[in-house]
Design a protein that fits this description.
Oligomer: single chain
Low-confidence stretches: 330-337, 339-353
Largest sheet: 8 strands, antiparallel
Number of helices: 12
Strand content: 5-15%
CATH class: Alpha Beta
Number of strands: 11
Number of domains: 1
Structural class: alpha+beta
CATH topology: Beta-lactamase
Mean pLDDT: 93
């Protein structure tokens, strides 16, 4: 960590644990680079796409409780939804073929001074019917729209807001005292983020949606989250196994996606369960090595790709994880800049990070 991350402008927290016991923990830098308040173990940082692990687990919890089924049609929850043939399971494993709201809203006439929220994304899909990226369940492509809709399904079934539901069902029972779902009332209190050169990263109109992102947490709280998956405290074994199973095998690859988790299935039999992320100046790396029961957590609020390299290459400390130079898929999973989308973008993996 000293050579690969801490001397490269890192600003955030690192925690590595084995069998639930912390073997390395470090906090570096400032909560706000414009002030002098140091980051500590209780500083909540945006975990970006790592939030998807929570949203997916909440859906599976509802499956466990008999409140929905993975094969339920999305149309069951949203009358007038103009994309038939899409199921809850397809949303979870990114096989829906839906367009990415980060692009279709950005390229629309949406007033960029107004925060878009989850219902706005649904209403736009129903009203404007942007083109699908591909036929449902024909392949996998990472798309944030899926998890915005899953958060809406959670709200519809529970009758609670997504922030309230997550607090009641997960954060409080697991004693994750510094974890919460960001909503617009938190804009003045939440930890800010910064570009690599230290420039403050302003909120934009896409900061009002959750499910795909917008959970703030700490390395210590995420360790509690990790450890819960070694028990049946939040899900039974059958559902846990389904979450960590790959669902896309159209192309030979060690990479796959489960129900809310990215996966690596290595030729030597090793397996990595993880979810990295990026949103504005925030970076997150969250990886689980089940063979060794190792957890690697890195959260930062000053953008640096070194977060991903440090997480990725640290696997080999604990076993033969055949590390190579990480590709774009490893580096980030949530777009933090949005440009005009071209036909080539629609065909590219990068437009679905």
């Amino acid at each position: 960590m000293d050579t690969s991350l801490l001397d490269k402008g890192f600003n955030g927290g690192i925690l590595i644990a084995k069998n639930g016991a912390i073997i390395y923990e470090k906090y570096r830098g400032l909560i706000d680079l414009r002030k002098k308040d140091s980051i500590t173990a209780s500083t909540s940082l945006h975990i970006a796409s790592t939030s998807k692990t929570f949203t997916a687990t909440a859906i599976l919890r509802m499956v466990k409780e008999g409140k929905l089924f993975l094969d339920d049609s999305v149309n069951k929850f949203f009358p007038g939804f103009p994309y038939p043939g899409i199921t809850v399971k397809m949303l979870l494993c990114h096989r829906s073929g839906l367009p990415n709201y980060l692009y279709f809203l950005s390229n629309s006439d949406w007033d960029k001074k107004v925060y878009a929220q989850n219902k706005d994304v649904l209403d736009f899909l129903i009203k404007s019917k942007p083109d699908k990226s591909f036929t449902a369940n024909s392949r996998m492509a990472y798309c944030n729209t899926n998890y915005v809709l899953l958060a809406l399904i959670i709200e519809k079934i529970s009758g609670r807001s997504f922030p309230e539901y997550m607090k009641e069902k997960f954060f409080e029972p697991l004693q994750m005292k510094n974890t919460y779902v960001f909503s617009l009332k938190d804009t003045l209190a939440a930890t800010p983020s910064f570009s690599n050169n230290g420039t403050y990263w302003n909120y934009d109109f896409l900061d009002g949606t959750y499910g795909d992102k917008n959970i703030y947490s700490t390395p210590q709280d995420l360790l509690k989250w990790d450890q819960a998956f070694y028990t049946e405290q939040i899900l039974n074994k059958e559902l846990l196994d389904s979450a960590f199973k790959g669902y896309s095998f159209e192309k030979p690859s060690i990479h796959n996606y489960g129900l809310g988790w990215r996966l690596e299935f290595l030729p030597n039999g090793k397996r990595v369960i993880y979810h990295y992320g990026k949103w504005h100046g925030f970076n997150s790396a969250f990886a689980r090595l089940p063979d060794e029961k190792v957890t690697i957590i890195i959260l930062g609020n000053r953008f640096t790709r070194a977060v991903y390299n440090a997480g990725y290459f640290s696997y080999d400390i604990f076993g033969d994880y055949m590390r190579r130079q990480p590709d774009a898929e490893e580096e980030s999973e949530n777009a933090d800049t949005v440009k005009k989308q071209t036909p080539a973008d629609k065909r590219s993996k990068k437009s679905h990070r």
